[in-house]
UniProtKB/TrEMBL annotation:
Keywords: Acyltransferase, Cytoplasm, Hydrolase, Iron, Metal-binding, Protease, Transferase, tRNA processing. One of its GO terms (molecular function) is peptidase activity. It catalyses: L-threonylcarbamoyladenylate + adenosine(37) in tRNA = N(6)-L-threonylcarbamoyladenosine(37) in tRNA + AMP + H(+). This is tRNA N6-adenosine threonylcarbamoyltransferase. It comes from Methanohalophilus mahii (strain ATCC 35705 / DSM 5219 / SLP). It holds the Pfam family TsaD. Residues 24-295 form the Gcp-like domain. InterPro entries: ATPase_NBD, Gcp-like_dom, KAE1/TsaD, Kae1_archaea_euk. Substrate binds at residues 132-136, 164, 177, 181, 260. The keyword Magnesium does not apply. GO terms for biological process: proteolysis; tRNA threonylcarbamoyladenosine modification.
Length: 330
């Protein structure tokens, strides 16, 4: 059995997990919660620095209960990007320290690719078009000739950040996504909002601002409903075109916004119409989690993709299509 310890901390969630080929052995998470407003990058990084040793020592405690010695771990993986620079550097420092002190090889993983691979692990999806809809990132991805290609992506902010930003302007607390979903359930009254798909890309910033403006004339319920309808229809349109273009017949949903039942329903209807299968992993594997970093770390470690500490710098703009998918055979 290969054992890999992975650490995630690109934004709000600090989470470390150990996985083997079969299962998540243990996972320990400590979440940064802003007291006011949204995620403050420096505060999030300070949170990660403050709780890194707590998370790791609790993880080692859980390993000890399972009679696993930290020395049995084969590799340490961490999110190399994309994400908030200060958060990435903090987590990378913790991973390097573990790697050096335990003399265990280091693996740097791409956070977006980790969302894809945990979904492929935890659902029957084999070669899907992936809608990765999270706070900061929103991308439509699919495997083609050695890479996860970006078929469509946001031109500005992620769909989750657009929801959160609107929610804050409406006086709701962070994260706004789940509350918007709740208010949207009390309306079927559509108010006109921008719908922005350009080629295969989408843009959410103007939609978020227009939704805020619409609050002057319409109820919160109506605006939440309409914001969801537009934002999610934009995502589904591009996902459908990626399916048509690639000829694939599976859709996999990932990212925190994937918790939304209306988004799932719309994707389900689209997949049904096209005869495609639609897969959603368990909720704990959708938002940012340590298990997905450990799992991609395991795949990469087995493919020989380790890095030297000297080469382990982080990249806040690390794109999934920069990664050679060495662990997949066509
Ligand atoms: P992630 O960045 O993948 O960890 O996901 C965080 C984002 O997911 C935040 O922007 C949340 O507002 C959003 N989110 C979480 N639950 C829901 C939901 N039920 N509906 C819409 N967005 C959600
Ligand atoms: Mg994410």
């Amino acid at each position: 059995m290969t054992l890999v310890l992975g650490i995630e901390g690109t934004a709000w969630n600090l989470s470390a997990a150990v996985v083997n080929e079969d299962e998540v052995v243990c996972e320990v998470t400590h979440t940064y919660k802003p007291t006011t407003g949204g995620i403050h990058p420096r505060e999030a990084a300070q949170h990660h620095a403050q709780f890194a040793s707590w998370v790791i020592s609790n993880l080692f405690g859980e390993l000890a209960e399972k009679n696993i010695n930290p020395k049995d771990i084969d590799a340490i993986s961490f999110s190399q990007g994309p994400g908030l620079g200060a958060c990435l550097r903090t987590v990378a420092t913790a991973a390097r320290a573990l790697s050096l002190s335990l003399e265990i090889p280091l693996v740097g993983v791409n956070h977006c690719v980790a969302h894809v691979e945990i979904g492929r692990w935890k659902t029957p999806a084999k070669d899907p078009v992936v809608l990765y809809a999270s706070g900061a990132n929103t991308q439509v991805l699919a495997y083609r000739r050695g890479k996860y290609r970006v078929f469509g992506e946001t031109l500005d902010i992620g769909v989750g950040n657009a929801l959160d930003k609107f929610a804050r302007s409406a006086g709701l607390s962070h994260p706004g996504g789940p509350q918007i979903e709740m208010y949207a359930k009390d309306s079927v009254n559509y108010v006109n909002l921008p719908y922005v798909v350009k080629g295969m890309d989408f843009s959410f910033s103007g939609l978020s601002t227009a939704a805020t403006d619409a609050l002057q004339k319409h109820t919160l319920e109506d605006v939440c409903y309409s914001l969801q309808e537009n934002a999610f229809a934009m995502l589904v349109e591009v996902t459908e075109r990626a399916l048509a273009h690639t000829g694939k017949n599976e859709v996999l949903l990932g990212g925190g916004v994937g918790a939304n039942m209306r988004l799932r329903e719309m994707l389900d209807i689209m997949c049904d119409d096209r005869g495609a299968s639609f897969y959603v992993p368990e909720k704990r594997f959708m938002g940012d989690n340590g298990a997905m970093i450990a799992w991609l770390g395991l795949l990469m470690y087995k493919a020989g993709d380790t890095i030297r500490v000297d080469d382990s710098h982080v990249n806040p703009n690390y794109r999934p299509d920069m990664v050679d998918v060495t662990w997949l055979k066509e």
